[in-house]
Amino acid sequence: MDARTEISSLGEFGLIDHLTRNIELRNASTILGVGDDAAVIDHFGKQTVLTTDLLIENIHFDLTYTPLQHLGYKAVVVNLSDIYAMNANPTQLLVSIGFSNRFSVEAIDEFYEGIYAACEKYGVDLIGGDTSSSQKGFIISVTAIGEVRPDKFVQRSTAGQGDLICCTGDLGGAYLGLIFLEREKKIFLENPEIKPDLEDEKYVIGRMLRPEAAKELIDFFEREDIVPTSMIDISDGLSSEILHICKESALGCVIYEDKIPIADETRNAAFKFELDPTACALSGGEDYELLFTVKQEDYDKLVLNEKISVIGFMAAPEDGKKIITRGGNTFDITAQGWNAFTI
Amino acid sequence: MDARTEISSLGEFGLIDHLTRNIELRNASTILGVGDDAAVIDHFGKQTVLTTDLLIENIHFDLTYTPLQHLGYKAVVVNLSDIYAMNANPTQLLVSIGFSNRFSVEAIDEFYEGIYAACEKYGVDLIGGDTSSSQKGFIISVTAIGEVRPDKFVQRSTAGQGDLICCTGDLGGAYLGLIFLEREKKIFLENPEIKPDLEDEKYVIGRMLRPEAAKELIDFFEREDIVPTSMIDISDGLSSEILHICKESALGCVIYEDKIPIADETRNAAFKFELDPTACALSGGEDYELLFTVKQEDYDKLVLNEKISVIGFMAAPEDGKKIITRGGNTFDITAQGWNAFTI
C-alpha cells in the first residue's frame, strides 16, 4: 500500500458510496440493496435463515498476521458456514464495520475486496450494513441471510439414536495454523530481523486465515436427496459441537479416533509442535467444516462423497458421550472448545 | 446493583442460556429462534425488510449517564425506526454484544431488560445474536427484520415534485438532551459533590436516552390507506434527511421554519443553552421521527393526525433545497448532521 487516503476526506456517506460503488446483485430475491433505510428481499415460497457474528480485533483476529483481504473473506465465510449448517443456501449479507483513524480508505478497500470475493464465490449479495468510527481497533459484524424450502432446514436437536455421525473435510488444521502464526509473531517481536518461513505450513495457515464454507455438501445433499437428521458447523472444535448435538437431541454418542479426518499437513505441523493431532481436531476451532448425522440407510449414498467421513454414531443417552481411541481405550468427550471468556 | 456475578462463572454458552431463558415469541413467522446455528422465519407472501446498526461505547453512547436498560431499549428502537421508515412492520431481531470484564452478569441483564422491554412494546421476537468479550468497552450490533406487503415498501428515491413534506412528533429534543447530559457530566467530573438536577430537562433527556420509534404512523398509514411517496427516519437531523430524499429523488425542496415542530420543553432548553431551536432540529440528531412525502391529495387525511406536521413541499431540481425563515428570508439547506468521522 503506497497511497493513504484518510477516511475523513470522504465522510461517512462518501465512504459508503465508495465501498458499495461496484456492488453486483446476483439473486432475484434481492429487491432493494444498499442505499435506503433498510434492504428488501423476497422469498418465493421459501423460508429465511438468519445468523450473525461479531468479530473484534485482538479477540477474534490479530492484524499483525492477518491480511485485511483474508479477514473480509473469513468474516463472510464464518457466517455462511452457519447458514449451510441449517441445510440452507445463503443469499444476502449485511456487513457493519467500526474502525479507528489508524485505518486508511485503502485498508478498508482491502477488507472489502475480501468481502466481495466471498460474495462472488458463494453467490451472495451485500445488501446493507453500517460504518462507524471506533476509539480503538477494528470491529466487524456480519449478518447472513439464507433461504431454505419449508421444513427442509436441519436443527441440532433432531438426531436419532443409531444415526451415523459424519463430518466434512479435515479437522485441526486451523488451530495449528493459529499456533504457528502466534509463534512466528512472538519470534518477530523479539527479533524483527528474522523473516518467517511460512512455506512449510502453507496448508494449516490457509486453513486459519482463509477458510471456506461447506457449500459443496449442501449441494450434494440436494442432488442425492439426503436430509441430515441434525447438523452444526465446527467452529469451536469437534468435541464442543458433538456435545451440542448430544445435549439438544438428548442422546449419547460414540466417536472413533481413527475415523476423525486429519490432513497429513496438519499431522506434520502437530508433530513439530509436539501436539496431539486428535486433540487439535477435538478442541481446536475455526475449521468451519460441518458435523451432521444421517440415518443408517443413507450410508450407501454418503460413501460416494470422498469429502465425507463417518466418524461414529449416536448412542442411547445412558451410554454417555465417548471417544474410542486407536489403542482401544474409551474416554469421555469433554468440551474444551474455545471460550472467549476464560482465555 | 449489589450482587456482582462474573461473566466467566457462566461461560459463553451459559451466558447465552441465561440471557435467553425467558424469551417469548410473538410472531407466527418466527419458526426457529435462539439456540441453533441460525434462526428461521417464514413470510406468508410478504417481503422482508432488513437493517443493521453498530453502536460503540464512547462513539455512540456514554455509560457515565446512560443507564444500561435505556441503552438496550434504544439500541432496538434505532433499528425499528429504520424498518418503519420502509413502511414495514418489524417482526424479529438479532442482537450481538461485545463487552470487557468490567461488566458483570447483572449489568448485562440490565441491558437485556431494555432489549426485552422494547421487544414487548413493539411486538418483535429476539431470534439470535452473538456474545463476545472485548478488550475495551461495550459494542452492540443489532439487526432488525420486518415484513411488508410486496410493493408497499417506501424508498427515499420516489418523492414527486409538488409532494408535501411531512414529519412526525417534534424535533431537536434529543440533541438538547445530549447537550444537557454532557454539561452535567463535565460539572460532575470537576466536582463530584454536585448532584445534577435533571427534573427540569426530563423531556429532552428522555428524548435522548429512551426514544421511541414511530410505529403509530405506520399503523395510521395502513388504516387510512395512505402510501407515502418517500420516507426516511430522522437520525442525523432534518437537514441531512431531507437532502437524502432530494438527492435520491433528484428534486429540490422548500421547508418553512415556522412549520418545523419543536416542543416547548425543547425551546426552553435551547433558550437556556443559548442555542437556536431550529438549528437543533435541523442539525441535531437522534430524534427517530419519520420524514416523508405524500401526494397533495392526501392532505385531508393527514390533518386528522395531530402527530403529523406538514413542513414544506418538494420543488423542481433547479429550485434548490431551501428553508424560508420566520422572518421571510430564504437560505440553502446544508447538511450538518452528525458525522462520526469528523467529530
What this model shows, in words?
With 343 residues, the first copy, chain A, is an alpha+beta fold. Chain A has two domains: 7-148, 60s Ribosomal Protein L30, Chain: A (2-Layer Sandwich), CATH 3.30.1330; 164-332, Phosphoribosyl-aminoimidazole Synthetase, Chain A, domain 2, CATH 3.90.650.10. Chain A contains ten helices and 13 strands. In chain A, the strands form three sheets. Chain A has a seven-stranded mixed sheet, sandwiched between helices. A four-stranded mixed sheet of chain A has the order 3-6-4-5. In chain A, helix 3 (105-122) links the parallel strand 4 and strand 5. In chain A, helix 2 packs parallel to helix 3, helix 4 packs across helix 5 and helix 4 crosses helix 8 (264-272). Chain A is globular and about 65 Å long. Chains A and B meet through helix 1, strand 2, strand 3, strand 4 and strand 5 of A and helix 1, strand 2, strand 3, strand 4 and strand 5 of B.
Properties at a glance:
homodimer; 343 residues; alpha+beta; 60s Ribosomal Protein L30, Chain: A; Phosphoribosyl-aminoimidazole Synthetase, Chain A, domain 2; 2 domains; 7-stranded mixed beta sheet; 10 helices; 33% helix; globular
Work out the strand percent of chain A.
15-25%
Low-confidence runs of chain A:
337-343
How widely separated are the two ends of chain A? 34 Å
Q: What is the name of the CATH superfamily of the largest domain in chain A?
A: PurM-like C-terminal domain
Q: What is the CATH class designation of the largest domain in chain A?
A: Alpha Beta
> Percentage of helical residues of chain A?
25-40%
Major sheet strand order of chain A: 8-10-7-11-9-12-13
